[in-house]
Amino acid sequence: MKSEEIVLAGGCLWGVQEFIKYVPGVISTEAGRANGTTHTTQSEYDGYAECVRIEFNPQQISVATLIDHLFEIIDPYSINQQGVDIGLKYRTGIYSTNPNHLTIAKQYIAARDDAAKIAVEVLPLTNFVPSDDEHQHHLTHHPEDHHLCHIPWNILHRYKKS
């Protein structure tokens, strides 16, 4: 089995990671920063989007299904904001080094009745910087911080096996 990677941005990375890691077909997740200009987390804001890099099994889950899941947890019409998180780094996006993933994402959005209103960017992944350790799987380690997340608890763990 050859896995593939895609990067999804849906506002605060804590919630996106906590939600998506339980989706069947997802192998691993890593919180980080997409498409900034630096290669460190120790710099001024450099244009990045908070995101989660997802390794997945394409024989178990498709890119379109991963995008379906992203749309479960975002307001796709919101520009630079998800819930209480406001700013360019909280924009929504789909990023990949695989041009086929980007084609699928563009087709997915174009096929929707509300395509003209959708504010999710679809771009090649030019840079990924992993978040610091304290941000990796943060809501698993610190569920008490869930109040800081825009995703309701019942949705956040929709795919988690008990």
Structural account:
This protein has 162 residues and is of the alpha+beta class. The protein contains five helices and eight strands; from the N terminus they run E-H-E-E-H-E-E-E-H-E-E-H-H. The protein has helices at residues 13-20, 63-73, 99-110, 138-141, 153-156; strands spanning 4-10, 26-34, 49-56, 81-82, 85-86, 92-96, 121-124, 128-130. The strands form two sheets. Strands 7-6-1-3-2-8 form a six-stranded mixed β-sheet, covered by helices on one side. The longest helix has 12 residues, at 99-110. The protein is globular, with a radius of gyration of 15 Å. The chain starts with a strand and ends in a 6-residue tail after the last helix. The mean pLDDT is 96.
Terminal CA distance reads 27 Å
Order of helices and strands: EHEEHEEEHEEHH
Range of strand content? 15-25%
Strand order of the largest sheet: 7-6-1-3-2-8
Using only C-alpha atoms, the radius of gyration works out to 15 Å
Q: In terms of structural class, how would the helical and strand content be classed?
A: alpha+beta
Function: Has an important function as a repair enzyme for proteins that have been inactivated by oxidation. Catalyzes the reversible oxidation-reduction of methionine sulfoxide in proteins to methionine.
Catalytic activity: [thioredoxin]-disulfide + L-methionine + H2O = L-methionine (S)-S-oxide + [thioredoxin]-dithiol; L-methionyl-[protein] + [thioredoxin]-disulfide + H2O = L-methionyl-(S)-S-oxide-[protein] + [thioredoxin]-dithiol
Protein name: Peptide methionine sulfoxide reductase MsrA
Enzyme class: oxidoreductase
